[in-house]
Amino acid sequence: KQEVTQIPAALSVPEGENLVLNCSFTDSAIYNLQWFRQDPGKGLTSLLLIQSSQREQTSGRLNASLDKSSGRSTLYIAASQPGDSATYLCAVRGAGGTSYGKLTFGQGTILTVHP
Amino acid sequence: GAVVSQHPSRVICKSGTSVKIECRSLDFQATTMFWYRQFPKQSLMLMATSNEGSKATYEQGVEKDKFLINHASLTLSTLTVTSAHPEDSSFYICSAIRGASDSNQPQHFGDGTRLSIL
User: From its phi and psi, is residue A111 left (phi > 0), alpha (psi between -120 and 50) or beta?
Assistant: First the structure.
């Protein structure tokens, strides 16, 4: 059964800092990995999707990497802003077993960027 | 970007009422839609996967007679919580993907429905 772990559970940083969020997964049989952002009381906003054959994806100040063989991904946020404050969720789409075709989510990292 | 619209955003009703939640993909045809439930300070729990024109596949422990899912068209799926009770109070989120669930397309989410049963 796929398990996804995110570290740290919470992070508080001053505005302007570069930061890294970590995600690890136990089963490397995946189609892709997706990073999401969730604001309080809202649904999920897709940030980046990395296919299993890819190593990284970039969008603006966000860069996500994937090392499928070691079961790890990182989300790098450059020059953080107060508007980046949210919960960040990592999810992998399974390519085998009971997780086939489904997203398995981590517990999320709660990010607070203070002015 | 792709948009998934979920309605209503909040429902407050009496115990025993049935509640219907709609999920629409606004700018793409969603072959596959998903329904999730999220408890406070927890991550998303998949309830069921629905494919257009066929019966939904429910996750273990989810009562199919309690949570009725219909995916009648490529742009609409509905979740009906039948005879809702206070323990059904939760945040329900729908999601849609262009293509089959084993595709490499991103999965897009609605804004969720906060269901409160009194």
Answer: beta
